[in-house]
Design goal:
Layout: H1 5-14, E1 21-24, H2 31-42, E2 45-50, H3 57-62, H4 67-78, E3 87-92, H5 98-110, E4 115-120, H6 122-126, E5 139-142, H7 148-154, H8 158-166, H9 169-174, H10 176-189, H11 193-202, H12 205-226, H13 231-245, H14 263-275, E6 279-285, E7 296-305, H15 308-315, H16 319-323, H17 327-346, E8 354-357, E9 364-371, E10 374-380, H18 389-398, E11 406-410, E12 415-416, E13 420-424, H19 428-439
Parallel strand pairs: 1-4, 1-5, 2-3, 3-4, 6-8, 10-11, 11-13
Antiparallel strand pairs: 6-7, 8-9, 9-10, 12-13
Length: about 450
Amino acid sequence: MERLIHERLKVWKDSPNRKPLMLFGARQVGKTYALKEFGRREFDNLVYISCDRRDGLPELFEKGQDVQRLVLRLSSWAGQAITPGKTLLFLDEVQETPAAITCLKYFCEDMPDLHVAVAGSLLGVKNMQKSSFPVGKVDMLHMYPLTFDEFLLAMERAPLYELLKEGDRDSLNALRAEYEELLRQYYFVGGMPEAVVSFVRDRNPIAVRRIQKSILNAYEADIAKHAGRDTLRVHMVWQSLPSQLGKENKKFIYGVIKQGARAREFESALQWLVDAGLLLRVPRIKCPEQPMRAYEDPAAFKLYLLDVGLLGAMSGTPAKNMLIGDGVFSTFYGSFTENYVLQQLLSLDDVPVYYYSKENSRLEIDFLTQIGEDILPLEVKAGVNVRSQSLKTFVEAYRGKGVGRGIRFSLLGFQEQDWVENIPLFAVRDEIKRKVDASWPAIPPA
């Protein structure tokens, strides 16, 4: 299975300023597979060590200040040579051995030629003492479920993937029906690798839904195992998500969890789920100005699930409703479509995502991002009814004041108007990536 993060890993490998790499993401999104495949394809040898082992492995890292000796011990442990410049040393489940995370500082300082990559849960890192975390000594990447582009590759539809990369709009408009059929399948299957592999192999929606429910059950077990005193509250937040997304207004409401619930009761439980990578948090900004983070409203936000396929399983949406006809695009007040769009945006580098709503008004913009010098308002339309009064009002009010032309994602083909550009839903990631790439200034050679 081809993962697009491979190209970003190659950039890390060849960087002259490379530091040890930390790859984070929710369980079962494919971190281990991606790093193992990267090691096999790009290095002479891969040394894989899982840090959840307890038979003496933690002790090897606890005295890891002497990196030469540590590498010798790890080489003996793995039964393989570890050679700087030729070996990828991959430490998996690193959150289970905090001393291994601390040792990344020494790898950075004393053996920078050795390629070291670690994978694990962000939760373990969040719980580390600040004095132990190798601040400034690591590079970090976040990994998500498969994007729609990666799904096309997995489905052996490479020509359709290449057309998206090229951005030939006439050809893409002509092939809309084919892309939309595959998009329906992606909404149902989602991007969890196990579900995708099953669907590619058997085209059996029953087997896919069984896998999705198994993954959700594993997440529930993780909550019970790791959430500690917050376990009950974390469960309640988690179980409330379909109801939250089933509202026309997607702003997170604590009262949906239980009657009379307040932020102070559940904010740490909510943050646990975000840190675990299970929920995606989109903050509200009060004013569409740069830097957007300075105008963030900490009390208002939207929450989405890490994967649109898991959302279908969690909400109990029948497979028939998702795979046949266009109903899936508007189900749940378009929640599947918003969840899908957010996943594609977050898979890109340096694309911050917020939303905007005006005080004492119904005006709301689904998402905003900053590309180059412009804040771009993004509206998500789940079908072909694309009336965009909020978007038009917003663009007219703020265009020329740091806000660029609006972008609307819908089932329509590519269209251009003075105030808005329509982008088909199947092309979200590639078109936004194209805009990001074009926004970087050309730097003349020295």
